[in-house]
Amino acid sequence: MSKVLIVMSAASTWERTDGSSYPTGYWAEELAAPHQKFVEAGHTVDFASPGGVRQPLDQHSADPEIAGPDCARHVEHAERALREFGPLLKLDEIGLDDYAAVVLPGGHGPVVDLYRDADLGRLLVEADVTGKLIGAVCHGPAALLSAVDPDGRWHFAGREMTAFTDEEERLFGTAEAAPWLLAGRLRELGAKHSGGPAYQAFTVRDRNLFTGQNPASSGPMAEAMVSALR
């Protein structure tokens, strides 16, 4: 079986254009569902982040009125997985030789730090060039923006993908005062972004790149990756 690397943001707040700070963290389902799918398929999963910082839980993802009736199960699985893994690996110390796939879950953190993390960018370019699988869900595709070639070109320009849509951001109440909106930014930089109905599972595969639109897409995206790893 293979090893999978889940890369988390290290951000706990999202600074807004109106001067406010929005508390953020990892979204439980987006971490738990892929982790569970990979482990059940027999794969080993490692966790990493900038500086090895363990990001807190986004409390919105533990609210059944927001995250659905299964959120308690996702929170329990995610927290147990992180606790059992122990200290997170540091991005700047990671090599990809032992990994078959890299997964980027969301929460708003990736639009705070991962989108401009040079160490992650290096890993993602290497992963793509060598044909390793890359998965990103909800706000996780913001992390793909870190992958910039030496000439300044975005490595994933022209690729088909999905991400948390601008409509979903508005419905969630976080579009106003956001420094930038993810789906719009991806399109501006050359992604072929598409989306499905708000908050319904929707995934896109472009060769070795797997993306999911929102938390409900986490499990289906991971299932597609597991199938590809067989």
UniProtKB/TrEMBL annotation:
Pfam families in the record: DJ-1_PfpI
InterPro entries noted in UniProt: Class_I_gatase-like (IPR029062), DJ-1/PfpI (IPR002818), Prot/Nucl_acid_deglycase (IPR050325)
Domain DJ-1/PfpI: 29-226
PANTHER family assigned to the protein according to its UniProt record, in alphabetical order: DJ-1_PFPI DOMAIN-CONTAINING PROTEIN, PROTEIN/NUCLEIC ACID DEGLYCASE DJ-1-RELATED
Protein name: Type 1 glutamine amidotransferase domain-containing protein
Domain of life: Bacteria
Keyword ATP-binding tagged: no
Keyword presence, Zinc: no
Keywords: Glutamine amidotransferase
